[in-house]
Design goal:
This protein has 158 residues and is of the alpha+beta class. 39% of the residues lie in helices and 30% in strands. It has 1 helix and 5 strands; from the N terminus they run H-E-E-E-E-E. The chain has a 5-stranded antiparallel β-sheet with strand order 1-2-3-4-5. The chain is rod-shaped. The model has no long low-confidence stretch (mean pLDDT 81).
Length: 158
Amino acid sequence: MIFYYRSKGIKRGQEGAALIAAVVFIVFIGFLGVTASFLFSSGTAATVDSLQSQRAFYIADSGVEYFRFYLKSYLENHGNADWSINPPPSPAPPVYPISFGDGEFIIEYPSTGQDTLTAKITGHSGAAIRIVFADFNKLVSGGGGGSITLNLTAWREG
């Protein structure tokens, strides 16, 4: 004799409802997992881009300090030259950038005057590029043979 036992909570025709509910639940959890991993990966990429941009900025800022030291040395060795006629050669032209940390910088002169020089320093780190403009002014005290002072008169990000 075989006995069939039917649960009182399950009505006829609903035997597969639990399986469908389980599949819907698993699909929902999978969707949440995919969404969370997408948000995490896009947030990580944004953080990497931001970090590279900050590094490029600090590399360009270091290029300003490097160039200030270079100009001071140039003035000590070459005296009071008219920069509008004979600007100092760039220590880091675009074809020969200077490596610094995990990036590099180049130095260009968009404009020069007799005693002023505007330098465009471009810092690169990874895919990020940051540009800084620095205005330098030389002051000669005591006539043509006097001492020469170099001042950084303006600094701005471009």
